[in-house]
Design brief:
Oligomer: heterotrimer
CATH topology of the largest domain in chain B: Fumarate Reductase Iron-sulfur Protein, Chain B, domain 2
Chains: A mainly alpha (262), B alpha+beta (234), C alpha/beta (574)
Number of domains of chain A: 1
Order of helices and strands of chain B: EEHEEEEEHHHHHHHH
Structural class of chain A: mainly alpha
CATH architecture of the largest domain in chain B: Orthogonal Bundle
Helix content of chain A: over 70%
Radius of gyration of chain A: 20 Å
Number of domains of chain B: 2
Distance between the termini of chain A: 34 Å
Order of helices and strands of chain A: HHHHHHHHHH
Distance between the termini of chain B: 52 Å
CATH superfamily of the largest domain in chain B: Alpha-helical ferredoxin
Radius of gyration of chain B: 20 Å
Number of strands of chain A: 0
Number of helices of chain B: 9
CATH class of the largest domain in chain B: Mainly Alpha
Shape of chain B: elongated
Helix content of chain B: 25-40%
Structural class of chain B: alpha+beta
Number of helices of chain A: 10
Chain lengths: 262, 234, 574
């Protein structure tokens, strides 16, 4: 999954800016079966991983019995629905050139809704980020203890969870917008260009960082598990390494993004 | 030396609050010594727990300047003032720095933490102690992990304990590993299965705060990793 | 005043959760699993107490080349023949079986030799290397594993519930239970029991430098005294030679284990001399604790001690790697207070460590009071005038087990009596008296003064005049303690609990000083500068004390071995 995700990320954020991946680009990519298979596999891997993670995190906080059964059911339904939609979109593929505009063409509320959703998410994220930074600074300046945040492992865990939730949220929206490729390519284009508004640019960067960090940290944990005692002292140094690599890998995508706006 | 202690009496106070004390710090004093100083000179109502004062019983585990530690082993010279002292996390507060260890010991008891001899009853005669050559590797990691003094520091530091009700926690799982890996126990309990369900080893997210918090150099995360692999060194 | 306590009935009430209390609980339950066993401790069960602090180890004649007879002889010689020989014989003959049980049933794992058999190390005063250990932290292993066994049995555990007093039945002839005080809520619990096992672990904390856990305040001795028990050998107070000196920290007095001297560490005065050459040239630092402690004390008193008032323990010549490998716990403790045990000397002082005296028992832990059994440090007679290192945890475990078995068997014979509620009421009121008093000093200063008085006058070297002055001052302190005050508020009131601690400490101190004054000779840990010689003709006796009587003596019964049988070392202080 890491390989697939990095590959996809590279193509969408490093080889070109995301704003350049409109319906025509998708049509070009999905002309043959290889890339469609790639995207389909990536979709299923990422969706299952993300939903499993979110489900696991929530499940323990819900009382066993009826509430848990309801939660399990809701997640199963959600997973099924999004998986089906995504796979269908991959199978249906782009509309043939010169064919009708698509059954949902003209439903301009769809890109508007998607963008509004993203904007709301962005606003929430920015506000939360500033608040968290503020609290952290206040505590440091007032020499108050930082709670469990004094441990690096706590940061690794929290950032990974945050990244995971963020990527999952984005993935769900992404499945919806990619579904527009067979259903309303013009709306898809509108959505893609909408994503490039300045307000959402930090979110683009954050998305790349999230995917990179979550993957690298996951690799870190997998390695530590495999090596167990031999790597017992490497937990924190490897976390630092992950942070450094994340920063280094995000920079090129940021450069690409900024270049595309000129 | 300025101390700020998080005080709270659930019977009378609405919420915890910091209380400030100025302690006459002398060389080699520990945080526990400072708490006694406060009790005897400034605030006779301060509540804290103690016993051996030598780092062997684990009774005085608490959070000092954000980190879990044994108050009796933390020297004032090593700390930055003002020193913030708080009770262990994730456990109900009885008074000030005294927490109710019952939830912690409940998780500990849930893994059947006792060695099962054959026969188990103390009243029967005992066989000869097992012959275990020290260089044979039969004890494996057990020697390193058996020194747990059940102080609760790891339990307090773990964010999964805080967020996942029913998670057994690093101390209990470490104990489960030590017994699962003990070559002498022939009673054949499937200890690995006991800790692989909901709230067991798979709920651990490899955070590692438990390792950093442990005052006696036990590595609970390692035990959990071994249990997850089912590799119990037999 | 109304009766204000909760009630609980059970078959066996065990007070104390060290080695003795835990072994008693497990044995009582396993002998008869239908018993209702209640285990109450002043601190957290399985964590408080002094068995946990044991570093060195547990003596047992396991090796085929060793024998209980040899262990017995060493014990008697160490005890200067003041031991109760039947108790001592019970100790040495059952110790090997207890070790086997600890390994095969409780799950302890002791250090092994190359060939996989249990390793036994050298300890002072023994003719054979028989000390079973786990690194230098043996006690943690034993108590933790015993505590784990509680989870497999239906034993009721009462944490942080101290005993205030033992209670008699209405006729006043037997023990019918105890009045307990829950530290968290500050409320009382009246427990009715067929048998009460007292295993609170004595503990000499009435000295300026002492080794035991901080909650040890002689509660067992004081309660036994008040209940009418006989206490013996109370003058026999063991000082361990190497207590860490750590400035103003309460860590001072904590023991650096005997194994260091057993392995060859040196004791030096401020001039760098190995002064033991002047006190015991043959055994040097490996002489028994009483000799070495007194030697250190005399060096310090003669002005040859360090500026902080101690002497120096130096293990560096054994090699840094050796020390680090064999004494890792000690290296760490020393490092934390700024000493490097592996490369240099550590400042130490004699420290009050173990009280050989206690309640008089028979081999099944019976006392003069029906319904009361005593095991562990609270009991007296096993060790005589000086305890061998490694025999203490052995005593707790061996006699704890016996007390448990005795208690289980007694169920058939002993009815469940109603305790005397007037007695309980008096105990209640007495305990509550200091709470919220308007005027009155705090008990902390009383404790500090008591510790100073005991250290100077009832310590390593005593004399008649000093002991009499000590008793007078103890009397004054007792009056002050009776008027002491604590801030109000029942819940987790440490200052209040401390006033109760100090009262018990004063009682234990009084018993010690009284017996010390009575014994006009020097033997083992008891050294009188006005009677410096050991006098078997007149003083091969136990000094008994009981409430309402003047102290009296009874001869030591030499049932198995006499001083003439051994070319014993008649050690006297110089």
């Amino acid at each position: 999954m890491v390989a697939f995700a990095f590959g996809h990320l590279f193509m969408m954020h490093y080889q070109r800016a995301p704003s350049a991946t409109g319906a025509a680009f998708v049509a070009g990519r999905w002309a043959g079966p290889a890339w469609r298979a790639f995207d389909g596999v990536l979709l299923l891997l990422a969706l299952t991983h993300g939903v499993a993670g979110a489900h696991g995190a929530l499940r323990s906080r819900v009382r066993p019995g009826v509430s848990r059964a309801a939660l399990d059911g809701a997640f199963a339904v959600g997973l099924g629905a999004f998986a089906c939609l995504g796979v269908w979109a991959v199978l249906a593929g782009p509309r043939a050139p010169g064919s009708a505009p698509g059954p949902l063409s003209g439903a301009t509320w769809i890109p508007a809704a998607l963008l509004a959703g993203l904007a709301a998410l962005a606003a929430l994220t920015y506000a939360a980020g500033l608040a968290a930074a503020g609290v952290l600074c206040a505590r440091i300046l007032r020499r108050l203890p930082l709670g469990r945040w004094v441990y690096p492992g706590q940061w690794a865990f929290a950032l990974s969870r945050l990244a995971g939730v963020g990527v999952l949220g984005f993935l769900l929206i992404h499945i919806l917008d990619v579904a527009l490729v067979p259903l309303a390519p013009d709306l898809y284009d509108r959505t893609v260009t909408g994503y490039a508004t300045p307000f959402l640019v930090p979110m683009e960067v954050a998305l790349v960082a999230a995917v990179v960090y979550h993957a690298l940290n996951g690799l870190r944990l997998t390695t530590l598990e495999a090596l167990d005692i031999r790597a017992a002292r490497a937990h924190t140094p490897l976390f630092v390494l992950v942070l450094v690599l994340t920063a280094l890998l995000v920079l090129p995508s940021l450069a690409v993004l900024l270049a595309s706006r000129r | 030396m300025i101390f700020r202690v998080r005080c709270f009496d659930p019977m009378t106070d609405a919420r915890p609050a910091w209380r400030r004390y100025t302690v006459d710090a002398e060389p080699r004093m520990s945080v526990l010594d400072a708490l006694f100083w406060i009790l005897e000179h400034e605030d006779g109502s301060l509540g804290f727990r103690y016993s051996c004062r030598a780092g062997m019983c684990g009774s005085c585990a608490m959070v000092v300047n954000g980190r879990e530690a044994l108050a009796c082993r933390l020297r004032l010279e090593a700390l930055r003032a003002p020193v913030h002292v708080e009770p262990l996390r994730s456990l109900p507060i009885i008074k000030d720095l005294v927490v109710d260890m019952a939830p912690f010991f409940d998780t500990y008891g849930a893994v059947d933490p006792f060695y099962v001899g054959e026969p188990a009853a103390m009243t029967g005669s005992a066989g000869a102690p097992a012959v275990v050559r020290p260089d044979s590797g039969a004890r494996g990691l057990v020697e390193q992990q058996v020194g747990c003094i059940s102080c609760g520091a790891c339990y307090s530091a773990c964010p999964v304990v805080a967020g996942h009700p029913g998670y057994l926690g690093p101390a209990a799982l470490n104990r489960a590993y030590v017994l699962a890996a003990d070559v002498r126990e022939t009673a054949g309990r499937d200890r690995v299965r006991l800790v692989s369900g909901d709230g067991g080893v798979h709920a651990c997210h490899d955070v590692g705060s438990c390792v950093a918090a442990c005052p006696v150099d036990v590595n609970p995360l390692l035990s959990i990793m071994r249990l997850r692999k089912g590799a119990v060194d037999r | 005043m109304r009766r204000e306590w909760d009630e609980l009935a059970c078959d066996v009430l065990i007070l104390g959760s060290g080695g003795a209390g835990l072994m008693a609980a497990l044995h009582a339950y396993d002998t008869d699993p239908s018993l209702e066993v209640v285990l109450a401790a002043k601190g957290l069960v399985g964590k408080s107490g002094c068995t946990r602090l044991v570093q060195g180890g547990f003596n047992a004649a396991l090796d085929p080349a060793d024998s209980p007879e040899r262990h017995f002889r060493d014990t008697l010689e160490g005890g200067q023949f003041l031991n109760d020989q039947e108790l001592a014989w019970t100790l040495v003959s059952e110790a090997p079986e207890v070790i086997r049980k600890l390994e095969t049933k409780v799950g302890c794992f002791f250090d092994r030799r190359e060939d996989g058999t249990i390793h036994q190390k050298a300890f002072a005063g023994q003719s054979f290397d028989r000390t079973v250990h786990r690194g230098d932290l043996t006690g943690i292993e034993i108590v933790s594993r015993l505590h784990d066994q509680l989870f497999a049995r239906r034993i009721r555990v009462l944490d942080e519930t101290r005993a205030v007093d033992l209670l008699h039945d209405r006729a006043g002839r037997r023990i019918a239970g105890a009045l307990l005080l829950r530290q968290r809520e500050g409320t009382f619990l009246l427990v009715r029991a067929r048998v009460v096992i007292l295993a609170t672990g004595g503990g000499p904390r009435m000295y300026t430098f002492s080794a035991p856990s901080l909650e040890k305040t002689g509660d067992g001795y004081a309660m036994a005294w008040r209940a009418g028990c006989e206490l013996i050998d109370m003058e026999m107070m063991q000082f361990h030679p190497t207590g860490l000196l750590a400035g103003a920290s309460r860590l001072s007095g904590m023991v650096l284990e005997e194994g260091l001297r057993g392995a060859g560490a040196w004791l030096l005065n401020a001039r760098g001399e190995r002064y033991m050459a002047r006190y015991d040239p043959e055994r040097m630092e490996r002489a028994t604790r009483d000799l070495v402690s007194r030697a250190s004390y005399l060096e310090i008193a003669a002005g040859r001690g360090t500026a902080a008032g101690g002497v120096l323990l130096d293990a560096s010549h054994l090699g840094a790697a050796f020390v680090a490998r064999n004494f890792p716990g000690m290296v760490k403790r020393c490092a934390e207070v700024g000493y490097d045990l592996t490369t240099g000397p550590v400042e130490v002082t004699p420290t009050a460590h173990f009280h050989m005296g206690g309640v008089r028992i028979d081999v099944d832990c019976h006392t003069a009071l029906p319904g009361l059994l005593v095991a562990g440090e609270d009991a007296g007679g096993v060790h005589g005038a000086n305890r061998l290192g490694g025999n203490g945890v052995a005593e707790s475990c061996v006699f704890g087990a016996r007390a448990g078995r005795t208690a289980a068997r007694a169920r058939a014979e002993r009815p469940l009596e109603a305790p005397d509620e007037d007695e309980a009421q008096r105990a209640c009121e007495g305990a509550l008296a200091p709470l919220g008093r308007d005027r009155g000093e705090r008990s902390f200063e009383i404790r500090d003064r008591l510790q100073r008085v005991m250290w100077e006058r009832v310590g390593l070297v005593r004399d008649g005049g000093g002991l009499e002055r000590a008793l007078a001052e103890i009397g004054e302190l007792e009056e002050r303690a009776a008027r002491a005050a604590a801030p109000s508020g029942r819940r987790w009131n440490l200052a209040w609990q401390h006033t109760l601690d100090v009262r018990n400490l004063l009682t234990a101190a009084r018993l010690t000083a009284t017996a010390a004054l009575y014994r006009r000779e020097s033997r083992g840990s008891h050294a009188r500068s006005d009677f410096p010689d050991r006098d078997d003709a007149r003083w091969l006796v136990h000094i008994h004390q009981a409430a309402g009587r003047e102290p009296w003596t009874e001869p030591v019964h030499l049932t198995r071995l006499s001083p003439d049988d051994v070319a014993g070392r008649q050690a006297a202080p110089s």
